[in-house]
Design a protein that fits this description.
Elements (H helix, E strand, L loop, with lengths): L3 H12 L22 H15 L16 H12 L1
Length: 81
């Protein structure tokens, strides 16, 4: 079974416009350093909402709400549980 962290990693890296080594995306990575911008973040959110049948809070829809990849993973984990 794929962990939430791994699935979030796959979804995020599938939407960025630059080549990213998926194995180098770790919890301390800043989203903007792995190529996340506001547009591909929303695409990722839509995929995450579909994947886990969750809904992001309206005030969490800006990618600046999640400074790091780890913060995003923790948020998704909380929503899933």
């Amino acid at each position: 079974m794929v962990s939430i962290e791994q699935k979030v990693r796959e979804i995020i890296t599938s939407h960025v416009d630059v080549s990213v080594d998926i194995d180098k995306v770790h919890s301390n990575c800043y989203l903007n350093t792995i190529g996340v911008n506001s547009i591909n973040f929303i695409r990722s959110v839509l995929d995450l909402e579909t994947e886990y049948s969750i809904e992001f809070d309206i005030d969490m829809l800006g990618f600046d709400s999640f400074e790091t990849f780890g913060n995003l993973v923790k948020y998704v984990e909380r929503k899933v549980s």
